[in-house]
Write a structure and sequence with these properties.
The chain contains 26 helices and 7 strands. It is mostly helical and 629 residues long. A 5-stranded mixed β-sheet has the order 2-1-3-6-5, sandwiched between helices. The chain has a two-stranded antiparallel sheet with strand order 4-7. A hairpin with a 2-residue loop joins strand 5 and strand 6 (80-83). The protein has helices at 16-22, 33-42, 60-67, 85-103, 138-148, 169-180, 184-191, 199-218, 223-242, 246-273, 278-305, 311-334, 339-342, 347-356, 359-368, 372-385, 388-415, 423-433, 437-445, 454-472, 476-492, 505-524, 529-552, 560-565, 568-582, 585-616; strands at residues 2-7, 25-30, 49-53, 57-58, 74-77, 80-83, 163-164.
């Protein structure tokens, strides 16, 4: 339960108290600053508290946006300020100072009163000021005090929604008329949809999934429950695809689209009801990957039932898609806090900006990168209408083109950067490399070595190990190639990754490790090796995705103990080549299976422990609106 403290004289006919109660607040009334301080002290420290001017006039959704969003320790709208436990002490200090100032007869005065927000939907309001000065508004004075103390105060973008503290009856009537002229439920539904999304999602899913999100909210369902339903639906779709029958393929395609509808609904439900959480963000991101890769496995099983072995294509699709994602993640993390990246004035950036100003080019550019909506629609239609081999072939071609397009653009942008990367960005890239104990040992031994070109060394190491496995397969030549890969990997991370193209190092490492496993499994010639390799890459990919989501949530990378326990990218690559050289093909299959199970158990156990503990420990809620995955 949260607590809202109303300050000032009650206004007859005001719905404010009822609105606050409907938002989950226990409403209490304070006559002055001293009374408010007493009531605030009585609220348990683990609860959210809000100070609201009793003269407030506005939409209920404006109150919801300003006072209930769990992502921000402190937030404010005109006439109201709120603090979660992390900002409670700051609010208490500000209120104590306010009470002392009131006792001494001194109040800060606002030089220019804030006007009632204008809205194109209701026409222009009178130009005269219709808001109370800060000297008359305790909530505004507390907000200013928090700002002065350096406490970040979130102020939500209200758009056409009204939030004001009218100064007189005439202004109150005008504000009420403005409230009545705007449908806040329609605004709430529109804001539930991502501001930037893919063509298929925007035009074929969101127009109705937002209403499904509202239906879920009114029945008390949570985003995590919808996320779980989406996962279960996708797993059933994978099971249908695994039957290998035409009816199963058609059912799988339909269920995959339904799973995507639910996937969109969970995020829209979170935005509609402001039910953001650390655990929810992790589940949403993790389940997206689990759904897609489980579906790949289902298609491969279905093809095998029909006598067609497409496990190499399924594994190749997973490798390509995972490498695409790590390119996205590494590039974005490398440019966090870099003003030169966000204000790029290169010809490439200028052309991109011009294309974004033309409507049809915006949609074409979003479609050709095959975001999750377009990708899943393509997979669903091809599954229902063609064969798994055709589905994977088209998917691989489309993803390869999308990866080439996006990576080329980012390389061109990076080459024109002026500033060096921040230490935070360099550390994020170092964490994304997933370097293990072998690289650590070599780096310690090679300290003092001259400056190097990290991405070129990483690329050279990857090409070396993949090419040797392509040429010699399960031979000791491949082991020597893996040893060279370990050495070049250490040289690549010998210095902080602050170069313009150093964000390419993590994706080069991913491609090398996954590609080595794929090639050795494909060249083994024994049934069951490719499925075992698929399981191993899936387990390792989960570890890499988990690393990304921790960094994005400002939770830091997984502990070094975990990275060492699973060997790091270089240790696993070397181990797989040694196993291939030492063991028979059948034994190699067993070894890959055991390794996959071991990695999966270790990383899953630590990951689940971490995220559940973070959720229970009150970690700040997050909600990633990034690029469509």
């Amino acid at each position: 339960m949260s607590t809202a403290i109303l300050t000032g004289q009650p206004v007859p006919g005001s719905s404010l108290e009822g609105d606050l109660r409907s938002l989950g607040f226990d409403v209490r009334v304070a006559t002055d600053a001293g009374d408010a301080e007493t009531l605030l002290a009585a609220v348990p420290a683990h609860q959210r508290v809000a100070i609201v001017d009793s003269r407030f006039v506005g939409h209920q959704h404006a109150l919801r946006l300003g006072l209930t969003d769990p992502r921000f320790p402190a937030a404010a709208i005109p006439g109201a300020v709120t603090a979660q436990p992390a900002a409670r002490q700051a609010l208490t200090r500000a209120l104590a100072r306010e009470n002392s100032a009131a006792a001494g007869g001194a109040h800060p005065v606002l030089s220019t009163p804030a006007p009632l927000p204008a809205s194109p939907e209701r026409g222009d309001l009178p130009e005269r000021t219709d808001a109370v000065t800060v000297a008359d508004n305790l909530a505004e004075r507390l907000t200013e005090a928090l700002d002065a103390d350096g406490v970040p105060v979130h102020r939500p973008e209200l758009g056409t929604l009204i939030a004001a503290v009218p100064a007189d009856p005439q202004a109150r009537n005008e504000a009420r008329q403005a409230v009545a002229s705007v449908d806040d439920e329609a605004v709430r539904l529109r804001s539930a949809v991502k501001a930037r999304d893919g063509f298929f999602t925007t035009h074929f899913i969101s127009p109705y999934s937002r209403y499904l999100a509202r239906w879920c909210a009114r029945r008390g369902l949570t985003p995590n429950q919808v996320t779980t339903a989406s996962l279960l639906t996708a797993l059933i779709a994978a099971g249908c695809a695994a039957t290998g029958s035409r009816g199963g393929f058609i059912a799988a395609g339909i269920l995959l689209i339904l799973s995507f509808v639910l996937d969109c609904t969970d995020g829209q439900l979170a935005r509609y009801s402001l039910q953001y959480s650390t655990l929810g963000a992790w589940l949403d991101a993790t389940f997206d990957r689990a759904k897609e890769y489980a579906y790949y496995a289902g298609l491969a099983l279905g093809a095998a039932r029909g006598g067609d072995d497409v496990w190499a294509l399924a594994l190749g699709a997973m490798v390509l898609q995972t490498c695409r994602h790590v390119v996205d993640f590494a590039f974005n993390e490398a440019n966090v806090g870099d003003s030169a990246a966000t204000a790029n004035t290169s010809p490439t950036a200028a052309l991109s900006d011009r294309l974004d100003s033309v409507g049809w080019t915006v949609w074409v550019r979003r479609m050709i990168v095959l975001p999750i909506g377009e990708r899943w629609a393509l997979i669903a239609v091809l599954t229902a209408a063609t064969t798994p081999r055709i589905t994977f072939t088209v998917l691989l071609i489309g993803c390869a083109f999308a990866a080439s397009y996006t990576t080329a653009g980012r390389v061109l942008r990076s080459l024109t950067r002026k500033a060096r990367r921040t230490d935070r960005a360099a550390q994020a890239l170092a964490d994304l490399t997933d370097s293990g104990p072998l690289v650590e040992l070599l780096v310690r031994s090679a300290r003092g070595t001259a400056r190097r070109a990290a991405p070129y060394l990483a690329l050279a190491g990857g090409v070396l190990v993949v090419c040797t496995t392509l040429l010699w397969g399960a031979g000791w030549q491949s082991v020597l190639g893996a040893v060279g890969y370990v050495i070049l990997s250490a040289l690549a991370v010998l210095r902080p990754l602050k170069g313009p193209l150093d964000w390419l190092v993590p994706p080069f490492f991913r491609a090398a490790e996954y590609g080595t496993v794929l090639v050795l499994a494909a060249k083994s010639g024994v049934n069951g090796v490719l499925p075992a390799a698929f399981g191993l890459v899936a387990a390792v990919a989960y570890h890499h995705y988990d690393t990304v989501y921790r960094i994005r949530g400002d939770a830091g990378a997984p502990p070094r103990m975990l990275v060492r326990a699973v060997g790091g990218h270089e240790g696993r690559t070397l181990l797989v080549t040694v196993l291939a050289a030492l063991l028979t093909a059948v034994q190699f299959k067993v070894a890959l299976t055991v390794l996959a199970v071991y990695v999966a158990l270790v990383v899953l156990a630590e990951s689940i422990r971490f995220w559940v503990a973070a959720h229970k420990g009150g970690a700040p809620a997050v909600h990633d609106e990034g690029e469509p995955a």
